[in-house]
Amino acid sequence: MISVKQALNKIITNKTFTNIINIDLINSLNYYLAENIYSPIDMPPFSQSAMDGYAICGEGEMFTVIGEIKAGDSHSFTLDSGQAYRIFTGAMIPKGTTAIAKQEIVKIMGNTIQLTENVKPNTSIREKGEELKKNQMVLSKGSELTPATIGLLSGLGVSEVKVFQKPKVALIVTGNELTKVGQKLLPGKIYESNSFSIKSALLSSGINCSVHFVKDNFEDTKTTIEHAIINNNVVIITGGISVGDYDFVGKSLSDLGVEQMFYKVKQKPGKPLFYGVKNNTKVFGLPGNPAAALTSYYVYILTAIKTMMGSTHPSLLNITATLEQDYTKKGDRAHFLKAHLKGNQVTIHQGQSSAMLSSFASANSFVYLDENTNFIQKGSKVEVLMLP
C-alpha cells in the first residue's frame, strides 16, 4: 500500500502522450496545445476608439466636426488641431487624434461640438498592439483550449491548432448485484450508477467512452478487459478489484500481463485502487462503491488523462480555505472529504460513506486530510481540492 502522493507521482511521471493532431479551432474545446502559439498580428491591429464619441485633436472645448468614422471603415484620415471626427466603438482612429471624447460629455451645435468636461490625452484610445504584439507568445504548449482561449485565438485569425489527441476510453462495470436503470429492481439487487457518474464526468471534460457490462465471471471479465486494452488508451474498471471470492478483476489483469504500478492506496474512500500499464494503455481498477469510484476518478484518472493530453497542470486545483466546523478523522489513512467551498470558507458534508453519492451531489470540492492528521479545529486552514 502506498501513499496518495506516491500514487499521484507514479501517474504524473509516467508520461505517455497521445498522438499529436491538427484540428480546426472551432472543434478544439477541452484539448491541450501541443505547441506554443505566437500572435500572427498586433492586437488590436490598429489604434481604435474604445467609445462612441468624437476623435479630437488638440486641447480646448470647441472642435469642428469634419466627418464620421464607423467600425469597419478603412481610411487614411488625419486630424488637425481643433478638428474632430464623429467615431464609434472599435473604429480606426484618424492620425493626429489626441483623445476620444465620449458622446455623453459633448454638446452639439451644428458642425461644432463643445466639451462639457476636460479630456486627458489618450483617453479611450486602444493603441495598436496594446494587448499583444506581433510574434508575442499567446499560449504555451500544454495550455487547455477553453471558450476564452478559443475566442482569443480566433480574434488573432488562427483557424487551426496542433493538439494532443483525446484518448480512447473504455469503462467496464462489473457486478452480479447491478440492475440497469429502467429495469425492475429485484430483492438483493441495486441500480447501477457508476457508468452514469463516471461517463458524465468524462463528458464534462470533453471525453467520450464506451461502456461495457460484465457479470462476476472470470472468463467474461478477462475477455472484456483484454479487448478493451487492445482498443483503447485508458481502461477503467469498477468493482471486482478486491479479494472476495467473486472479485475477478485482479486475477484477469495478472493473467493478461498488465504491469502493476500500484495496488491499494492509503486513503479513504478508495483504498482498493489499482493502476497498471500494458502496451501504453493505462488500466485503472476502481472500487465498486459509487462515491469511492467517483473520488478515485477525479483524483487519479482525470489526472492521468490530462497528463496524456499534455496538460502542464493535470491535478485538481489545490487551494487553502478556512474550515467551518471541527472535524475528527478516524484511522491512519488520508481522507478525501466531500465538501462545499463558499468564498474562503469550506464545510465538510455529512455522509462520507464510500457508498453514498448524496453528499457528493452538492459538493464542489474535497477537503484533503493527510494520513497524519486526526483532528482539525474550526477556523483552521485546510487543503481543498476543487472539483472541475
Question: What are its keywords?
Answer:
Molybdopterin biosynthesis moeA protein, domain 3; alpha+beta; 6-stranded mixed sheet; 4 domains; 388 residues; Molybdopterin biosynthesis moea protein, domain 2; Molybdenum Cofactor Biosythetic Enzyme, Chain A; 7 helices
Architecture overview:
There is one protein chain. 19% of the residues lie in helices and 31% in strands. With 388 residues, it is an alpha+beta fold. It has four domains: 4-17 and 166-308, Molybdenum Cofactor Biosythetic Enzyme, Chain A; 20-43 and 130-164, Molybdopterin biosynthesis moea protein, domain 2 (Alpha-Beta Complex), CATH 3.90.105; 48-126, Molybdopterin biosynthesis moeA protein, domain 3, CATH 2.170.190.11; 318-386, Beta-clip (Beta Barrel). Strand 9 and strand 10 form a beta hairpin. The mean pLDDT is 96.
Summarize the structure.
With 388 residues, the chain is an alpha+beta fold.
Low-confidence stretches: none
Termini Cα gap: 28 Å
How many individual domains?
4
* CATH architecture classification of the largest domain: 3-Layer(aba) Sandwich
Helix content: 10-25%
Count of helix runs: 7
Strand order of the largest sheet: 8-5-7-6-10-9
What share of residues are in beta strands? 25-35%
What's the story with the biggest beta sheet?
6 strands, mixed
Using only C-alpha atoms, the radius of gyration works out to 29 Å
Q: Mean pLDDT across all residues, rounded?
A: 96
Mass-distribution shape: elongated
CATH homolog superfamily of the largest domain: MoaB/Mog-like domain
Q: Would you count the extended β strands for me?
A: 29
Per CATH, what is the topology of the largest domain? Molybdenum Cofactor Biosythetic Enzyme, Chain A
